[in-house]
């Protein structure tokens, strides 16, 4: 088995090296790994850092000439994966790669085809910096569940792991943060097995570089309705 790790990057010069090194430090229990970084036209020193990491053999880098958004970066990454499993990993250190074995377990045990790493299962809400962000996530997840019937606790989580055949069967259309409700709605329509496992979370503040905002939440609501009701 092989795990493909897709890391979208936009202006993460302070964290991307630490993140990639943490990814390689995880014991995957014999599972191979590949690290695919998609630089979404970063304007800071991220491209230079990524060139160094690629030269060290720690990742393969693909660069967008213009900024397109997280969803577009994931779409690029999915088109290049060669693994049996695919996980999304943000570069900002909010999520710990040490959780990979926990997220992979249901798939490796053939209990799931898609695994969501939930920040709210058996976890203290105080781990989130912004309670309004947690509240908004809860609302979006509740609305998503009403349309998809999945019963998730954390639809907006970064940690989504897929069988490669599942994620490759989905046409990713949303270029920005609408990816999360879009992929959830489309996975639900596929009728595959979706489970959640608890993961840790060290949320950063907007002053520290958090990029998602209230406009993205409104767009997410639109995406929930659009992709849940649309007949493909």
Poorly predicted regions: 206-210
Would you identify the CATH H-level superfamily?
Answer: Spore Coat Polysaccharide Biosynthesis Protein SpsA, Chain A
Structural class: alpha/beta
Instruction: Report, as a whole number of angstroms, the end-to-end distance.
Output: 31 Å
What is the count of distinct domains?
1
Q: How many β strands by DSSP?
A: 7
Radius of gyration: 16 Å
What is the level-2 CATH architecture name?
Alpha-Beta Complex
CATH class: Alpha Beta
The H/E string reads EHEHEHEHEHEHHEH
Helical proportion, percent range:
25-40%
From the 3D structure, determine the CATH topology. Spore Coat Polysaccharide Biosynthesis Protein SpsA, Chain A
Give the strand order of the largest sheet, numbering strands 1, 2, ... along the chain: 3-2-1-4-6-5-7
InterPro entries: Glyco_trans_2-like, Glycosyltransferase_2, Nucleotide-diphossugar_trans
GO molecular function: undecaprenyl-phosphate 4-deoxy-4-formamido-L-arabinose transferase activity
Protein name: Undecaprenyl-phosphate 4-deoxy-4-formamido-L-arabinose transferase
EC number: 2.4.2.53
């Amino acid at each position: 088995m092989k795990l493909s790790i897709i890391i979208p990057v936009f202006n993460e010069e302070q964290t991307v090296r630490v993140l990639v090194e943490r990814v390689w430090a995880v014991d995957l229990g014999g599972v191979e790994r590949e690290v695919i970084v998609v630089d979404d036209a970063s304007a800071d020193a991220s491209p230079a850092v990524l060139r160094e990491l690629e030269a060290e053999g720690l990742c393969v880098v693909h660069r967008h000439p213009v900024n397109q958004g997280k969803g577009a970066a994931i779409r690029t990454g999915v088109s290049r994966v060669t693994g049996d499993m695919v996980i999304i990993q943000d570069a900002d250190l909010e999520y710990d790669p040490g959780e990979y074995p926990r997220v992979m377990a249901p798939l490796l045990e053939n209990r799931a085809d898609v695994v969501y790493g939930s920040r709210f299962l058996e976890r203290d809400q105080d781990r989130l910096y912004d309670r309004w962000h947690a509240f908004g996530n809860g609302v979006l997840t509740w609305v998503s569940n009403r349309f998809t019937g999945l019963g998730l606790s954390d639809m907006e989580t970064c940690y989504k792991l897929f069988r490669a055949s599942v994620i490759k069967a989905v046409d990713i259309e949303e270029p920005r943060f609408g990816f999360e409700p879009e992929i959830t709605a489309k996975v639900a329509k596929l009728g595959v097995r979706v489970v959640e496992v608890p993961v840790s979370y060290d949320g950063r503040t907007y002053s520290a570089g958090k990029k998602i905002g209230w406009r993205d939440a409104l767009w997410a609501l639109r995406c929930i309705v659009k992709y849940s009701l649309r007949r493909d």
